[in-house]
Amino acid sequence: MPSVLSISSSSPLRLRSFFDPRFPPRFHPDPSYQPNPSSDWLLVQTEARSAFPEAFVRPPLCPQLQHPRDRDRIPPSRPIYPRFGPGCSSIGFGEAVELGPLRVQKFGTGLEFNNHAWNKEANLLFLESPVGVGFSYTNTSSDLTAVDDRVVAKDAYSFLINWLRRFPQYQDHDFYISGESYGGHYVPQLAELVYERNKDRQKYQYINLKGFIVGNPETNDYYDYKGLAEYAWSHAVVSDQVYELINKVCDFRADNWSKACMDAMGIVMKQYHLIDFYNIYAPKCNLAQTTTTSPAADDTTEAKSKGRLKGRIRMYSGYDPCFFAYAEDYFNKIDVQRSLHANVSGKIQGKWTVCNDSIFYNTYKYTVFSVLPIYSKLIKGGLRIWVYSGDADGRVPVIGTRYCMDALGLPVKTHWQPWYHNKQVAGRFVEYEGLTMVTVRGAGHLVPLNKPEEALVLINSFLMGNHLPTHKSCMSIY
């Protein structure tokens, strides 16, 4: 069951149950639920100036959370570490909406079981990062203005070391890193840092890293934005004339776009603002009270800085497009925060939001424009690497990701072919030497939310090192 760990300011290491027995989680779906000290949310504090909440979820202990085939199975020994960003909550998105064992119900009224939670396959560890996201905070204000990819990787590594020291029983387990969207930067960057420091066991604690998997990942600015424009045109979001204009005036390799390019891309963003950018075939959320719907969707061009389109509209998509609003409703309830020991310091001001737009638009320093060199290094290092892409995502579309994978110049082992789920084509995949790319048909930016069964098949295949089902007769094991 869930656990949370937090690194906080200058105090000795101490533990306490995150789900306080006096204040059980609001409307937990099982009325008989009682916190388990060995597997509930924990708050861990060490000497550090920043507090990073996390949620640790073990394989299911409750029959209603477990598939019959799993009940006699040895719990998997693969902690997986999902990442999101920059500025969005891993707990608010990943744990509470996408792939955790409990999901926030409509309008934030309570929790419900997720029958396709990834902890059926692995231990899950969710970290709120960078500092300032979710319920994380810092005692040093400069930490909030000196945030970039390097800082995030360093902080995440330090967190992992502290966590493994506190829970040494997981030290020898196979370890994988997972993420989506801007996690396409965070995940390989953290993997690279672990990989390099693992070379010096005299100086650094060894982490048993085996690989990583990323979904709809931002990877390389040139290919990502080239793919964004091409996808918008090929899916009839913009006209032929707009696409021709973009090809004429935009150089996506440049650190700074021309005004003509920003204006042309602004047309694309205005068209996407009319629909769900992150799942172009899903309905759009029209709730007026949502705090995380960015006004930059109307004019992202003015926010362009250092070659990056800072008006990254947040990743909102799904069967119910208002899921992010429900998460905000839930985590802002006083009794929920009390149960979670959230904001006990009183240092977090204002309303809890799924995404911290101040980090995203104002303070985060976008200095890395491609992580493809990291891929090349880690592929040579023998890590297992998978990239998956929901093919209905307009923000980080499959076209750009295919350009990125092709740019690696890897030999093809298994050519492009369909994979199946319940006798239907679930997507397609190609296996390169050292890397597998998978598409998920009909999914948007948040694959585990849009296609939960297919996502569970995918993560199972990744962790087991197996091929995806390639025969139409294959039935779901879930």
UniProtKB/TrEMBL annotation:
Q: Has keyword Hydrolase? A: yes
Keyword set, alphabetical order: Carboxypeptidase, Disulfide bond, Glycoprotein, Hydrolase, Protease, Signal
Question: From its record, what is one biological process in GO terms?
Answer: proteolysis
List the EC numbers from the record. Answer: 3.4.16.-
Tell me the superkingdom of the source: Eukaryota
PROSITE patterns given for it? CARBOXYPEPT_SER_HIS (PS00560), CARBOXYPEPT_SER_SER (PS00131)
List the GO cellular component terms: vacuole
InterPro entries for the chain: AB_hydrolase_fold, Peptidase_S10, Ser_caboxypep_his_AS, Ser_caboxypep_ser_AS
Q: What is this protein called?
A: Carboxypeptidase
What is the originating organism of this protein? Ananas comosus
Identify the taxonomic lineage of the organism of origin.
Eukaryota, Viridiplantae, Streptophyta, Embryophyta, Tracheophyta
